[in-house]
Amino acid sequence: MSERETVTIFINDKKYTVDANQTVMQAADTLGFKIPRLCYHPRLSIEGACRVCIVEVEGLKNYVASCAYPVSEGMRIRTNTKELRRARRDIVELILDNHPTDCHTCERDGNCELQRLTYAMGIRNRHFQGERKQYDKDLSSPSVIRDPDKCILCGRCVRICSEVQNVSALGYAHRGFKTVVMPAFNTPFAESVCTTCGQCINVCPT
After folding, report:
1. Whole-model pTM?
2. What pLDDT digit, counting tens, does each position of 116-174 carry?
3. Fold of domain 133-206
4. CATH class of the domain comprising 6-80
């Protein structure tokens, strides 16, 4: 498919012509529509993990992740319905349920994408209860502190370490609720192949 090929789509009932190679999120960003996201990063491959960027596409039964769903001719997209906002809010509330509550003493206070998204959605209280993950911090590195309790499993650190830095010091371990990002075999950062470049910190949303 040529990079110059275009398609006509409709976003919130308005007609637009966009690059046929774009995803729904990329097209929306180009046109000035703001779709919330956490796992997406323009420098990295598509993960589609957080589902915060869901949109409604006419003809489909379920919402789709706009970061991963390609545009197509005649597609009709809704980005800001009441139902969508409620679904996104539920997703963020579920993420928060398994996240520490120390925002005002956290070193990322005021510079946290999850915090900004929470405020933007008007979330003030936790509505879900259940078991919460508890891990020890990895303080072995002189420049990187790994705190799994604050990890939302967006995968940005894993991808930038492998795709941009070509180091692959981080990866996923275990499954389901017990999934955690760590160096291979849970090796301390100081003993892993980590080069302390700090790129994982730069892209981390929390």
Report:
1. 0.91
2. 999 999 998 887 777 888 899 999 999 999 999 999 999 999 999 999 999 999 999 99
3. Alpha-Beta Plaits (3.30.70)
4. alpha beta
DSSP the chain: --TT-EEEEEETTEEEEEETT-BHHHHHHHHT-----SS--TTS-----S-TTEEEETT-SS-EETTTPBP-TT-EEES--HHHHHHHHHHHHHHHHTS-S-GGGSTTTTS-HHHHHHHHTT--S------------B--SSS--B-GGG-----HHHHIIIIISS----EEES-GGG-EEESGGG--GGGSS-----HHHHH---
